[in-house]
Amino acid sequence: MSSTNSEKLVLSKAELQSLVTSNDPVISFKKPTNKRSECWANYSQIYHANIPQDYIICFQCKSVLRWAKDHGTRVMTHHNCSKNKPVVTTQSRQRTISSYCTQPSSSKECPLIQKRITEACVEYCAVDVRPFESVAGTGFQNLAKQLIDAGATLGTSIKVSELLPHPSTISRNVEHVYLNLKKQLISLCVPLECFCITCDFWTAKITGIHYGGISLHYIDEQSQLRVFTLSCQAYDFETQHAINLRSFVNKVLQEYGLYLNDDVFIVTDNENKMKCAFKDDCKRIGCSAHYLNKILQLAFTNNNANCNSAQSLFKLVRAIITNIRQSHKQSLLSICLVNYSDTRFSGIYLMFNSFMKIYYELPQILSDEQKKNYLKVDRDSLESLCIYMKKFFDVIEKLSCEKTPTIHLVIPYKQLLINLSVINDNDDQLIIPLKKYIAKELPDYWVVNDVHFIATMLHPNLKSFNHTPHQRYHAEALLKSEFDKYQELQQQPSSSNNNNKRQQIQQHKNTQLASSLDDIFDSPTSPDELQDEKLAKTEFDRYIEDNTKIDKDMNILIYWKNNKSSYPTLAKIAKRILSIPATNTSVERLFSDSGNTITNRRTRLQTSKVNQLLFIRRNLSVLRE
Questions:
Q1: How many structural domains comprise the chain?
Q2: Residue ranges of region Disordered (predicted)?
Q3: Which residue, 13, 74, 198, 444, has fewest beta-carbon neighbours within 10 Å?
Q4: Eight-state DSSP code of residue 88
């Protein structure tokens, strides 16, 4: 009897269609919890008496479709719904050619076209030796769009080879596109009153050529943070002495009409040559990511750190990963193992974390000798270490953001990591020496400047300095000093009139004093005195007393844009200070792009062409906005 009932729980397509059409209450619908595709917007899985069926329903035409968990969205994309979507046109936008065509969802040709395009993409990646991700790139999609538009205008009779340019033609036109974009960027640099520069130098592994990267950071009139790559030029000096580094940077900046002076900030790494190159006629700020990454690197590699257990674990994991990569067994694992690199931020955490994720997969591919090292790795200690180091990784990621200001986060995040490194009773024995070392090095090794304190004061949620109360008055004094400097630069013709008014009010108060019994009462406050008290409170005082808080995810630049009229002087200070990045990762990312540009197949690429290609890649989307 029970077997008969269980069989009835799974209905046929015809039975379900009948129940759906009659709106039977025993039928219900629910979307799978792990499905995120947009195709599920018009579909749901069918339930009969709360029992899931291997069928879905199309809400547009009420059709029941066969579906199983391993089918994905293929059934939905191939379903030709009988209810076509209406063609939408608006008066404010010109109707595109696609609006005159049959909609893809109702066209029988669409699946066939998509299949042919998919096959062509497979052939493109295989024949031209291109990564699969290349078809998802913005440049490839823009090219495809241009070809579609050309086909709509010229028809399909024209040969593709007649439209596509020769490779040498593309190479010649790189400079043309570069010069047009550079001219546009120069025009943006002309009116700049305050900006910040980041720079760094590196060597291309394949060619051995030295390059210098420079990026520009500023806040525009719409209170948007703008980041542009100015240069990825070949470093043509014989040595990397400080005077040569400075000359290289000055030469690049002059091309854009920019010059370093005492009001310009520059963010670099913390090598001595960079400190020496930018010690005069500018304000150098050390990269916070470099400070933090160096502390972690020394903790795991320096014998004087007294972190023996952590260093032993580091060597074991690194040796196992190196063996796997050299024996070409990486493809047998579910995820890619990341080996340590001293040039990669958070390289130690990324290595440990990738190892932990496939910890239980490793015995299947390791040799007997490597299994002995594997058994020495305690997974609980590894997991505790990853949890601890995840905070350092998150801080570096936050400070490396290019879309919003980050310099105001340096002091709070530094204190957060110091607090995190306090030893607890339940800490793993491997982590205790590591915490001791990091807690000792963080306060002094990670250098913060006056500008970091000022930037923190410019955030309404951080100016109370709850993270470090003992530093609040120091930060207030620095912001007040900066505020006074700006005030001195502004002419105030009404200041003498205000002083005269205060003198008159004081004289009036003195004449009202009389030797009588009424002297025990304060004199009544006149309207002039009330106005005088308002005048006595400066913009700075009102900001300090303002308890307004903003959402933690709100861009701080929006706050200053909205309060520009209330705090005009402080808004100018914010525009200058908040354009300074906490790290120089905008240039570090340029290194990665250069590595993808200078490959084994492009060793003869001229250095000027490398500079032009990277300039286009980094600036094209922003300059076209």
A1: 5
A2: 488-509
A3: 444
A4: P
Considering the domain architecture, whether residues 587 and 575 belong to the same structural domain is answered as no
User: Residue with structure tokens 């070809």?
Assistant: 147
- Does some domain include residue 347? yes
Torsion angles phi and psi, residue 230, rounded to 5 = -90, -35
Same domain, 384 and 474: no
- Say which residue, 60 or 71, is predicted with more confidence: 60
What's the DSSP call for residue 542? H
Residue 421 clears pLDDT 50, i.e. is over it: yes
Q: How far apart are CA 110 and CA 103, in angstroms?
A: 9
Output the six-digit token pair for 346. 């958070």
Give pLDDT, residue 534.
52
| Long-range CB pairs of 241-248, under 8 A, 24+ apart, other chains included | 241/273, 242/273, 242/276, 242/277, 243/277, 245/201, 245/212, 245/273, 245/274, 245/277, 246/277, 246/278, 248/212
- Residue 75 CA, chain-centre distance (Å), reads 37
- Which run of H or E residues covers position 231? strand 225-234
DSSP state string for 34-61 = T---GGGGGEEEEEETTEEEEEEEETTT
State the DSSP H helix or E strand holding residue 101, giving kind and residue range, or none if neither: none
Range of the domain at 22: 13-78
- The pLDDT value recorded for residue 226 is 96
In whole angstroms, give the CA distance from residue 184 to residue 624.
10
- The arithmetic mean of pLDDT across residues 407-430, rounded, is 94
